[in-house]
Amino acid sequence: MSELRVNGKTEDGDPVGVAPSMAAEVARLLGVPLQLVPFANPGLLADAAGTDAWDIGLLGADPLRSQTTAFTPAYCEIEASYLVPPGSRLKCVADVDQPGVTIAVSARSAYGLWLERNNQHATLLRCDGGGAALDSYLNEKVDALAGLRPGLIGDLAKAPGHVILPGGFMAVQQAIACGKGQPEAEAFLRNFVENAKASGLVASLIAQHKVQGLSVAPAA
């Protein structure tokens, strides 16, 4: 399954969104049935690499995850930014990494791993999943909530008056992963991703699912 939040679910409970649609196209080309396996957070998805839990995973490529997982080039980029309360002194993403600022973040997310490597002054409040991070942000009066822009846009429904800061502190490179040591699978998935970008498939799926804050990644 995918690190990117899905748009909803079917009547059967399967997730709906860009990543599930990409997985469905892979299955169609291979002529095999599709089984979507959800995980509570992206860290657990990454932990399952090389097991029988999944054949391909759709998640953000990250150097730490690359130790156990082979990634294609990105098929889309997802801007990560911050949600801040009304009247916050934080006006742009550059204001956030300073002493005395606490950031709620989903633990082991791609943008969370990036913040762990690059954040120098602010305090990270690591939460078990995006929903828990939003709850901590709202209930513990945290200064900022880190998240992917599509998810933060959805969070505004629970946080009226709050503001998403302009720009982003990084962009998650959403890719397709498989276990290492599978050269044929890696080559097939790499070609699939490049064709999906060049043919307009990725752009059409973004438009179809009406995902804001998501863009097609450049050709590799």
Structure write-up:
With 220 residues, this protein is α+β, with helices and mostly antiparallel strands. The chain contains seven helices and eleven strands. It has helices at 18-30, 42-47, 110-118, 130-139, 149-155, 183-198, 201-209, and strands at 8-9, 15-16, 57-60, 69-71, 76-84, 102-106, 123-127, 144-148, 163-164, 170-179, 214-216. The strands form two sheets. Strands 3, 4, 5, 6, 7, 8, 9, 10 and 11 form a nine-stranded mixed β-sheet that branches. The chain has a two-stranded antiparallel ribbon with strand order 1-2. The longest helix is centred in the C-terminal third of the chain and has 16 residues, at 183-198. The relative contact order is 0.22.
Keywords:
single chain; 220 residues; alpha+beta; globular
In short:
With 220 residues, the chain is of the alpha+beta class. It is built from 7 helices and 11 strands.
Secondary structure topology:
Blueprint: E1 8-9, E2 15-16, H1 18-30, H2 42-47, E3 57-60, E4 69-71, E5 76-84, E6 102-106, H3 110-118, E7 123-127, H4 130-139, E8 144-148, H5 149-155, E9 163-164, E10 170-179, H6 183-198, H7 201-209, E11 214-216
Strand element count: 11
Uncertain segments of ≥5 residues (pLDDT<50)?
A: none
The secondary-structure class comes to alpha+beta
- Strand fraction equals 15-25%
Largest sheet: 9 strands, mixed
Order of helices and strands: EEHHEEEEHEHEHEEHHE
N/C terminus separation:
23 Å
The number of helical elements comes to 7
Give the integer mean of the pLDDT values. 92
Helix content: 25-40%
